Amino acid sequence: MPNKNGSVYGLTILSPIIDDDRATPSHDLQIRAYLAQLSTREDSPFAIAPGTHLARLVVMDDVIYVGMPSCEEHLKSKYLVFESNCDGELDTYLAGLADSIPRHLDAIWSHCVGYPTRGAADRDAFIAYMKSCQLETTFYFAAVNDKSVPATLRALRIQTAAADFVAAHQGDDPVTLQRDFIHFAAQLKTLPPPPAGSMGPHRTIKTGGHNE
Questions:
Q1: Which residues make Cβ contacts (< 8 Å) with residue 197, sequence separation at least 6?
Q2: Helix axis angle, 174-188 relative to 149-168, nearest 10°?
Q3: What are the distances in angstroms from CA 134 to CA 16, 32, 81, 99?
Q4: pTM for the model
Q5: CATH number assigned to the domain covering 4-135
Q6: Which pLDDT score, from 0 to 100, does residue 65 have?
Q7: Residue 68, pLDDT score
Q8: Residue percentage of the chain with pLDDT more than 70
Q9: Distance of CA 212 to CAs 112, 117, 143, 201, 208, Å?
Q10: 199: CB partners within 8 A, 6+ apart
Q11: d(Cα 151, Cα 7) in Å, to the nearest integer?
Q12: What 3-state DSSP class applies to 87?
């Protein structure tokens, strides 16, 4: 089904950027400058916002002519492209964005045509605006499955910890390996998911003198 893959929603939004010769710098340059200084780690706005598997924002200047047999076409304006794979339903996700990162949303989308006057503070108007700019999504980021963000992050943490366990126990005798693995498996059950945007760091697990 377009836009939805199990519990994961694929969101694609194209918002036309204001073209105003009086703006200095231009609106598209102001968006680029703001995006360039945003963190991509735990303090990223879209890591703070609930339910985001991944998010990408980019300014699209024009479409590229790749030659025959395609036709040469051009956009009437520059566009802000926002792509996100997120948990749950669209209205819930957009409401979560409006509630958790309104300052960032306004700083970015206020340079786009038709953005609500009150910005994300008017949650209903914000949701309606974003949906009016939405395109159908049929492709998803390959690493996103039908699991929630916390479940996916927990799986990534366990995968990393398990790889470290294997590397640290090369050559161990069977008795030691079994003992340490039992302890390791018990410790895994207590691990919380890593924070979104943390790129998978994991807590050290002590097993029989080894650190994973």
A1: 39, 40, 41, 42, 43, 44, 46, 47
A2: 160
A3: 12, 21, 10, 20
A4: 0.71
A5: 3.30.70
A6: 76
A7: 81
A8: 84
A9: 48, 51, 24, 11, 11
A10: 41
A11: 12
A12: strand
With residue 194 as reference, give the H or E element that holds it. Answer: none
Question: How much is the pLDDT for 150?
Answer: 66
Domain range annotation of the chain = 4-135, 149-211
Tens of pLDDT along 60-79?
Answer: 998 777 778 888 788 888 99
Residue 97 near residue 23 (C-beta atoms within 8 A): no
Q: What is the largest CA-CA distance in the chain?
A: 75
User: What value does the mean pLDDT take over residues 170-193?
Assistant: 84
* pLDDT given for residue 145 in this prediction: 67
Asked if 98 contacts 87 with a C-beta cutoff of 8 angstroms, the reply is no
State the Cα angle at 5 between 194 and 50, rounded to 5°. 35
Helix (H) or strand (E) holding 61: none
Cross-strand pairs, 17: 112
